[in-house]
Amino acid sequence: MAKLYFSYSTMNAGKSTLLLQASYNYRERGMRTVLFIAAFDDRAGVGRIASRIGLDSEAHAFRPEDDLFETLKGLMADGEIACAFVDEAQFLTEAQVWQLARVADRLKIPVMAYGLRTDFRGQLFPGSQALLALADELREVRTICHCGRKATMVVRTDENGKVIREGAQIEVGGNEKYVSYCRRHWDDVMNPDVPK
């Protein structure tokens, strides 16, 4: 039975690396995979997934208006699809998460989505919220805070390293813009005036 999986974490936990490795494992056995990434995430180039350790692969660039069920259904004309992978899954719309659930349920293709759970303000992304509600299996990918505890939150910084507390939910970036923290240290930097 095909399932919808959601692997989530903060920045710099290795989600893209895990996705690329899992896709490679399928392809190494002669099985076809289809990869997706948000079109506006062009850090490695539009339609390209890249990890911090140097792995990369071409992917289908999705936009909010794209129907991923229909896309995958159409791609099945070129042969069987063993698994579909979605990087930066927090950028999916709720409708697209439902489409991916239908891919697993009706097209019988496993879907593995990887993304952030929350933004720099500690709020769920719409795609992540829908995945947390609909995924058959949830997997936490762990990384650590500077104190050694599990990092569960992320802070956005400007070009000088100053913490940003307000702004648009979505701003693509990597190590130059985001730092992962445990909840306690996130609270310390995001709410410095709250008595501790």
TrEMBL record:
Pfam family of the protein (one): TK
Residues the entry annotates as binding Zn(2+): 145, 147, 182, 185
Alphabetized UniProt keyword annotations: ATP-binding, Cytoplasm, DNA synthesis, Kinase, Metal-binding, Nucleotide-binding, Transferase, Zinc
Catalysed reactions listed for this entry: thymidine + ATP = dTMP + ADP + H(+)
InterPro entries: P-loop_NTPase (IPR027417), Thymidine_kinase (IPR001267), Thymidine_kinase_CS (IPR020633)
GO molecular function: thymidine kinase activity
EC numbers for this chain: 2.7.1.21
PROSITE patterns: TK_CELLULAR_TYPE
Cellular location(s): Cytoplasm
UniProt-annotated catalytic positions: 88 (proton acceptor)
Residues annotated for ATP binding in this entry: 9-16, 87-90
Domain of life: Bacteria
PANTHER family named among the record's database cross-references: THYMIDINE KINASE (PTHR11441), THYMIDINE KINASE, CYTOSOLIC (PTHR11441:SF0)
Quaternary structure and partners: Homotetramer.
Family: Belongs to the thymidine kinase family.
Record NCBIfam families: PRK04296.1-5
Name under which the protein is recorded: Thymidine kinase
Species, as recorded: Hoeflea alexandrii
Gene name for this UniProt entry: tdk
